[in-house]
Amino acid sequence: MNTVEHTVKSYDSELTQLDNAIARMGGLSESLLGRASEALVKRDTALAADVIHDDLKVDELEMEINSEVTRILALRQPVADDLRAVIAALKTSSDLERIGDLSKNIAKRTITLSNTTPIGAVHTIARMASLVQSMIHNVLDAYLERDERKAIDIRQQDEVVDQLHTSLFRELLTYMMEDPRNITPCTHLLFIAKNVERAGDHATNIAENVHFLVTGKHPKDERPKDDDTSFEGLEE
Description:
Low-confidence stretches: none
Mean pLDDT: 90
Number of strands: 0
Radius of gyration: 19 Å
Shape: elongated
């Protein structure tokens, strides 16, 4: 919450409403990823269809936040902490919208996969998604609490997601080399795993937004990464 009390009380209310909108949008994005993962594991096409439909709500919230940010910038001309809060809200809503889109993409491929042979690697993807869900949940807490230390911890967790993604990539390549019939379902799973990994990147973006929001600076150290899939080949 904003710690500076303004002479115009409605200004405080506007900034609080902005935080509340981010909280609602974040909760919905987190839920979409969890439900998309559940649909994948259970091969539940109805649940996947619900995820695709509910992504529209995330888009609507982003437009609402963008509109409010534009209005605050025009009417309040915020500076210092207030300006950072408004900019962070704008950037965070964009990251949350992308998490919603990635969850929708997972749901679309889940519907396609329902007609293919089940692959056990979906459970590894579910573990990845659960970790990213936790990152999203905790980074939203860090955002609302203006907790820089918690944000730094979340930033470090992205490395674990990358490690899981690299391991899963190798596992799926093995399945494809063992049996050509696995190529189609494994290709879809590769894209799904990448969507989950990208959702983790967006949670990390939000952690960096929190760092900027609290300190007025971007993190100096390079973001931890441990994803080797760009260098992997099909050779044994």
